[in-house]
Amino acid sequence: MRLVSFITPSGTASYGTVAGSDVLDAGAVLGAQYADLRQVIAADAVPGLAGVGTALPLADVTLLPPVPTPEKILCVGLNYLSHIAETGRDRPRHPSIFTRYPSSLVGHGTPLVRPKVSKDFDYEGELAVIIGKAGRHIPAEAAFDHVAGYTCVNEGSIRDYQIHTTQFWPGKSFEASGSIGPWIVTADELEDITAQTLTTRVDGVVVQQAGLDDLAISIPEMIAYISSVLTLQPGDVIATGTPGGVGKFRKPQLYLAPGMQVEVEITGIGTLGNGVVDE
C-alpha cells in the first residue's frame, strides 16, 4: 500500500492511499477517529485504509510529507561506502546521527527554498525508514518488526553552515530546504529493501546512483543503536544516509539554484520531485 498525506482541492488536510492516478481520501471518513497518518500508524490501523475514501485525482491534491508532524526526524550521516570514499573519511564504527525538524521538509512537488544567507545548497538523495511500532532497546534481529514502510528523502544541506562548527544541525535545518515523499510504501510491499536502487537527478542528469546494499551501517543496526538511546515512536523518520555524488564533492561543484529540478527515485517506492526557488 502507498500511504499519503495531502491537502485537498478545497484546502483541507487529509490522508489516505494511492490507487493508480487517484488518492482515496480516507481522512474524510476516519478523521474523527484518527486525526492524521501518524495516529493511524500508531494504532496499527494501516490495513483498514485499504479502499476507504472518495477518489480524488492525484494531480489535484498537494502532497505533504507523508507523516507531516513526526515526533522525531533522525538522520544518519556518512553511511554509504561511496560517500565515505569521496569525503576521504574512515568507515564509521557507529552511526553519525543528527536531527532535523518538520519545518525543514516539504512534500513532493513543493519547491525547495535556497536560503538568502547561502548559495551552497546541496542535494542528498536518501532512503527514509518510517517507524511503525514503538520500541526501546530493539535488537537488530527484530528491527524490521518495527518498520511501517519506506519513502524517499532529499536531505538538502547548506554546506557552509554545516561546517561552521562540528555540529551539523545548522546546515541541515533550514526551513523548506529538504523534501520527503511522495508517499510511504508499506514494508510488506518490499521483500528486501536492500535490493533496491537509489538514483538522484538534477535537471534530468543522474548525479547519484547506488544500491541500498552499499550502506556501511545497516538498517537493523541503525534501529538497534538509536533505540538504545531513546524510544522510537510510530511515525518517526530515520533518514539512512546518501551515496557518493553530492554536489560539494563534484568537480566542478554542483549546487542547487532557482529553476533547477531535483528528483530522488528509489525502485519499488517511487520518485520524489521538487523545484528550487530563492527565499
Automatic annotation (TrEMBL):
The keyword Metal-binding appears for this protein: yes
Pfam families: FAA_hydrolase
Gene Ontology biological process terms from the UniProt entry: carboxylic acid metabolic process
Annotated keywords: Hydrolase, Metal-binding
GO MF term (any one): isomerase activity
Occurrences of domain Fumarylacetoacetase-like C-terminal (ranges): 72-277
Keyword Membrane on entry: no
PANTHER family: FUMARYLACETOACETATE HYDROLASE DOMAIN-CONTAINING PROTEIN 2A, FUMARYLACETOACETATE HYDROLASE DOMAIN-CONTAINING PROTEIN 2A-RELATED
Family assignment from sequence similarity: Belongs to the FAH family.
Annotated protein name in UniProt: FAA hydrolase family protein
